[in-house]
């Protein structure tokens, strides 16, 4: 399994982001949504939805998230309004630590994303970077447990090593 691309995104004062890196696996999964769901489920990241990416900056303070691109392509901005815009396409997987902001900037008409959260994670909350909630969400993010496995490569995948090095 190739190493994922890693992106370290700093707190911008509104979007807290995470000390853990965003992981991007290129061409890592088949372009069949059911196959992506089976892979994620086999690695303790049960799939939770099929859809796209919201077109506004948001993050989850209580859960990590995985996005498997099953069809199409999108440009997604990560980390808040000053963060990098990455093009993701069918076969790519993005693993977002709790707190990492994301916002769809553009998409092809056929975009389909399979999303999921680690086994045992609560229903994800949704925050949009309200300044008055910043300190509370930073505390919540720090309390989110390490996933048992990498959603793409399983227990021996790079996620735990890469995130463990940052913790």
Structure commentary:
With 167 residues, the protein is of the alpha+beta class. It has one domain: Jelly Rolls. The protein is built from 3 helices and 9 strands, in the order ββαβββββββαα. The strands form 2 sheets. Strands 1-2-7-4-9-3 form a 6-stranded antiparallel beta sheet. A 3-stranded antiparallel beta sheet has the order 6-5-8, with no helix packed on it. The longest helix has 10 residues, at 33-42. The protein is globular, with a radius of gyration of 14 Å.
Q: Mean pLDDT, rounded to whole units? A: 96
Strand order across the biggest sheet?
Answer: 1-2-7-4-9-3
Low-confidence stretches: none
Count of spatially separate domains? 1
Q: How large is the share of residues in beta strands? A: 25-35%
Corresponding CATH architecture = Sandwich
Please render the helix and strand layout as text.
Blueprint: E1 5-7, E2 22-25, H1 33-42, E3 47-51, E4 65-71, E5 73-78, E6 85-89, E7 93-96, E8 102-107, E9 112-116, H2 134-142, H3 158-166
Antiparallel strand pairs: 1-2, 2-7, 3-9, 4-7, 4-9, 5-6, 5-8
What are the salient characteristics of this protein?
9 strands, globular, alpha+beta, Jelly Rolls, 167 residues, three-stranded antiparallel beta sheet
How would you concisely characterize the structure shown here?
The protein has 167 residues and is of the alpha+beta class. The protein is built from 3 helices and 9 strands.
